[in-house]
Amino acid sequence: MKNVTRPDLESIRAAARRLQGLARRTPLVPFEGPSGEAEIFLKLENLQPIGAFKVRGAGNAIYSLDRAELERGVFTASAGNMAQGVAWCARRLGVSAAAVVPDHAPRIKLDAIERLGARAVLVPFDEWWRVMEEHRYSGLEGRFIHPVSDAAVIAGNATIGLELLADLPDVGSIVVPFGGGGLSCGIAAAVKALRPEVRVVAAEVETAAPLSAAFSAGAPCTVDYRASFVDGIGAGRVLAEMWPLVRELIDAAAIASLERVAEAVRLLVERHQVVAEGAGAASLAVALADPELPRPVVCVVSGGNLDAARLATILSGEIPD
To answer: Is 109 tagged catalytic?
Structure first.
């Protein structure tokens, strides 16, 4: 596969225009920290129609296709949120949609995929990862919308960066959950085109932190992957096609423990009545653990699709299996 190119401001602004009326302009709110000072802000992408930022990338990619191509249908590979984004956009356009999903995906996301009219094809994690690497899946037809490395997906994600700068021009750093780099690189492309000094940090979880390992090794390398309640981020390896762009745009990676992510989920509920899934709370977990991050800090709350049972476990002070 070819390396992914950095989206320019023209393509990002075109995506913003295309997404008007499709994706919401989500709020940026101050986090109620212990000192009461607004040093951390929350970009609440969990308030998107599907409960996650993925509607931006999916919407820009799908609405960029001509009608003839759309008639063949669309499909993606997703742990759940991108599948919902593709399904939601496809339903609005009246075309078929499907998603290859790892078999440990939470029930709340599988139910949402089906509710939106898409077909979910459950496969073991290693098989799902091969779809991510090969951009194809035998048995599914139509246009494959890659959840990470599709140029239109990245440009759609980048619209978050434009909104951040409009709402908080003096932002010092941005912490973004890192799944494959499509979100973090999109935001960084927009922000660094306008404010190159802003620091962009990728948030990972201890059960799967391939970017931290790649930065240490100087190249993508395989790491241990363990499924956890933080299901929206983490993999065994950084996609080779994404590595040059990630290395160019992301300033650092930081790893949060499951305990810190669970605590961030609790804090968001208790202080803001915001439900974030594990991936969405990872950015706050990283920001709270690092007082050296240039202030003010924006934490991207990427999604809120968390099973009720898992949320109850977290709110009781425990960590879900």
So the answer is: no
